[in-house]
Amino acid sequence: MIGVRLSLTGGRENIVRTCLTAVGVGVATAMLLLAASLPTILDRIDERSTSPYNVDGLEDPPPGDDTALVGGSLVNADHRGTLVTGWVVEAEGERAPAPPGVDEVPDPGEMVVSPALAERLDDPENEALQRRLDHPVVGQIEQEGLSGPHELVYYLGHEGLEHDGASVVRLDSFGGGGEPYDLGGPVVLLLGVVGTVVMLTPVVVFLSAAVRFGGQARDRRLAAVRLMGADRVSTRRIAVGETLVGVLLGMLLGGMLFLAGRPFAELVPIDDGVFASDVVPVPALAALVLVLVPLIALWVVLLAVRGVAAEPLGVVRSAERSRPRLWWRLLLPVIGGALLYAGLGPYVFGTTTVNWVVLVSVGLLMVLLGTTAVLPWLLDRTVRMLPSSPLSLQIARRRMASGGGGPTRAVNGIVVTVAGAIALLTLLNGAESTEREGADPEQELSVGMTPDEDPYEQVNLSGEPRVGDPEAVFESESAVEEAVLVQEIHAETGSGEVGRILVAGCASLERITDLPPCEPGDVFATAGAGMEPGSEVGIGDREPSTPWTVPDLTVLESGVAGVRFGEEALLATPEAVAQAGAEVDEEVERAVLLRLDDSHPDAREQMLAAAGTVDPTAHVDPLPLHATHSALDNMKLMLLAGAIACLLMVVAGVTVGTVEQVRERRRVHAVLTAFGTRRRTLVASVLWQTAVPVALGVVTACVFGLALGALLVGAAELPMDTDAGEIALLVAAGAGAVLVATLVTVPLLLRTMRPDGLRSE
What we know:
With 761 residues, the protein is an alpha+beta fold. The protein has four domains: 10-49 and 185-317, no CATH class; 60-171, no CATH class; 328-439 and 625-761, no CATH class; 445-621, no CATH class. Helix content is 51%, strand content 12%. The protein is built from 24 helices and 19 strands. The strands form three sheets. Strands 10, 11, 12, 13, 14, 15, 16, 17, 18 and 19 form a ten-stranded mixed beta sheet that branches. Strands 1, 2, 3, 4, 5, 6 and 7 form a seven-stranded mixed beta sheet that branches. Helix 1 (2-9) packs across helix 2 (12-36), helix 2 runs antiparallel to helix 20 and helix 7 packs antiparallel against helix 8.
């Protein structure tokens, strides 16, 4: 109770210290509650992000009054780097199920869109998107049908859909048995675990620093209490009681900050965004936060009090401090690296026998905390080697030598943030380089269209003529250099391999790639097409497939332009496949192979607009790079957002800590000024006290971050791919943040150099 009274009624300084501790603990608590909300966010996204396609192997229900047909509509298209998902829906009866977030199935030709997509359609600058989705909007999708507030999705009413169980499915309800929210595969899941630990470790470091605010003033108060008769055990309990007030107030403040910050979650432009109502901590994790925060605070306080002897006549500190030992400091990252490798090895190779998430998390935590443990030893060795001039450096050197862990405590948050971010960026770049390996940015595109529609007699949903020649529609766009209309036939060989046959006249085939003289009935094959002359293959998507005997063919040396990445194909004239009968013509897919002008700023936008004009159910191959790697890109954005949040938090802590040090040393500064020390010398000494630990911390963070990144990519069997520009940006941001926080305290420092600072009561 004495400690509680001291924290609340011990004068302005005590109240200021309590408030500073409460603010620091509050910020850390709010960050931990946000992390505790992550499972809830993912679960609710999982509930709403369901695909209408059946992934459980169940048969589609029979047609009835309560069923609807659903098919993809440019489902892999994007708009200015953001994925746009669309579905065409046709009600088969009056009781047909409506898509989630929609009251009823839209009529043919009408469209319901998400609020984010509605905003883009209303923007006059998105003319290409408006042409692509040239349908009347009759409503908006509610929150229960969206994974996030920024999701771009629409449902388009249609008629004439044919159920095939693959591209067009029949549903009697939405959301059951659908494909859950995909975290992006094992590598992205690993990135999520690494990112969570990397972003939360600075919070713990900041929390320990916040509890130490006003430590020297507290020690003087404990000495006064000792003079009144308290023993050493009582002073520790008083110190705990004094700190608990700030901690409890901080936890209350943290809860208020968390609640006040929830609405701002919808403003974060990461992936589809997060609804404010989804940011709810898991009860068990929230309870863990409420228990761990005071326990960490008490542990830090008892550790700080143990290193100081508060005697009745004053505070006693050892003038000569023992030099830090290195062996146990290096032991932390070594053990952490071993745990990381033990957790990642079985996980990557698919033979997991232990909870790899626990091993990876504990290993990462030990490596990052080991980084902060090495910094005091490095500072001690560096300070001993610093020169004694100029005078400002000599003052700073003396202060750093006598400060114990104080000089490094202020920059530990920066060290952990930068080291963890470098490691995570290395892992991200390695995953991206692997996923993008072999991708050709100049690869031509293929736009597939509905098989049973004659592309030369296309009509829109209202029955009016829509387009003429698809080739002419695409080539009318300034960004399209060439468009070739073909038929795409899937061919299955006896070995079970699936190949692709492109069927078109000789004139069209010669536009696709270099051919020898071509005549009706000819067949050409690229190397590795997998279909030999005389072999029988099944062609078409329906069961049973139509048998076709491969005729004599000419093998080409070069690959085929306009085909999906890594695929080979047969090029055949219509006469060559005529032996398969007319049934093939009715079920094969028509496609337009495109060659775009990559230098055109809106090349893909124009292509998608033309595709939407030709056929609203068209699909584009190959996927854009960002669509196939959206999870990795989202992780990088999350890392950036988390690093910025951590840096802001650390800047606040460094500012408060520096202000506290200046206030506690105001009498020393006044005495030095009275003896003739120049003000600029004292200001420079304070900057030296920040610059030296920051420089050492940045070097340590780079070394440990790159080593940790190399360990992660090595265990995950990914290539080492570092970006010097990204690392330099992180280092500059971290170092600049601390230096700016120090400069903010210069006005207060100048005020402490006045003669009235010599007064005392």
